[in-house]
Amino acid sequence: MTKLVDSHAHLDAPAFDPDRDAVVERARQAGLTAILTLGVDGESSQRAVALARQYTAVYAAVGIHPHEAQHATPEVYRALLTLAREPAAHRIIAWGEIGLDYHYHHSPPDVQRREFRRQIRIARELDLPISVHSREAHEDVLGILQEENAAEAGVVMHCFSGDADIARRCLDLGCYLSFAGPVTFTNARQLPSIVPWVPAERLLIETDAPYLSPHPWRGRQHRNEPARVALVAARVAELRGMSLEALGETVTRNFATLFRMEPACQV
Ligand SMILES: [Zn+2]
Ligand SMILES: [Zn+2]
């Protein structure tokens, strides 16, 4: 069976409360060997870590999403750092999700930028790669990533949504690009023309579940889940003219490299 990974999901979301075990089991049956579940605030980061302890194939990232930036108090950071430093922290393989979102403005842009910078510095100190959310904020995201030398820690641009120029600049900085459901949409704009030339060693795939269901499940009524990363994988493989199996091997290897999985728990 083709091996797959989901580099970005929110398994702690209430949408999964009724049947989380079944969701993780379907992912396993679909060939997924690793799912990264990310926190968006203090509480969801705690839940992400608990899930990573509960399920073998689940790993956690802790962090504060740009939407929540204005609630990033010193207490929240203290709790996240405690989590990241405790003995079971090997289940925490990244810091995120962090970044900037100028679409919704749930937190003021200057607060978002301050907390983004702060978290890049924390991740560098902890030697954890970061998972970056960038929505309608690519210029500022790129500027901050560069100024903070984020690439030294490792960076994945989750649910990449930029144009070819932004893609090139991300790659020049050393970032990985992770593609999600939108690459499968019938009206996907530039993404299908970008996917073919992303260097194989910088390519990742994800679901962002429970959001962003891929085609043909697109739409709010369709809860997305990690097993559906197979649809993203199939589309990316098709666009790159490679077999699904080869694509699966590529993204599985990249996941292990970026997130510095120890050989013992390598996926
Ligand atoms: Zn995001
Ligand atoms: Zn997300």
Helix and strand run = EHEHEHEHEHEHEHEHH
Using the alpha-carbon principal axes, give the shape.
globular
Provide the low-confidence segments as ranges: none
Bound molecules: zinc ion
* Rg of Cα set: 17 Å
Major β-sheet, in short? Answer: 8 strands, parallel
Query: What structural class should be given to the helix and strand makeup?
Result: alpha/beta
For the largest beta sheet, what order do the strands appear in spatially? 1-2-3-4-5-6-7-8
Question: What percent of the residues sit in helical stretches (DSSP H or I)?
Answer: 25-40%
CA(first)-CA(last) distance: 14 Å
What is the tally of helical segments?
9
- Strand runs, count: 8
In short:
The protein has helices at residues 20-29, 42-54, 74-85, 109-126, 138-147, 164-173, 191-194, 229-240, 244-258; strands at residues 4-9, 32-38, 58-62, 92-101, 130-135, 155-157, 176-179, 203-205. It has 267 residues and is α/β, with parallel strands linked by helices. It has an eight-stranded parallel sheet with strand order 1-2-3-4-5-6-7-8.
Describe this structure in words.
- This protein has 267 residues and is α/β, with parallel strands linked by helices.
- It contains 9 helices and 8 strands.
- The protein has an 8-stranded parallel β-sheet with strand order 1-2-3-4-5-6-7-8.
- Helix 2 packs parallel to helix 3.
- One zinc ion binds at residues 8, 10, 38, 97, 208.
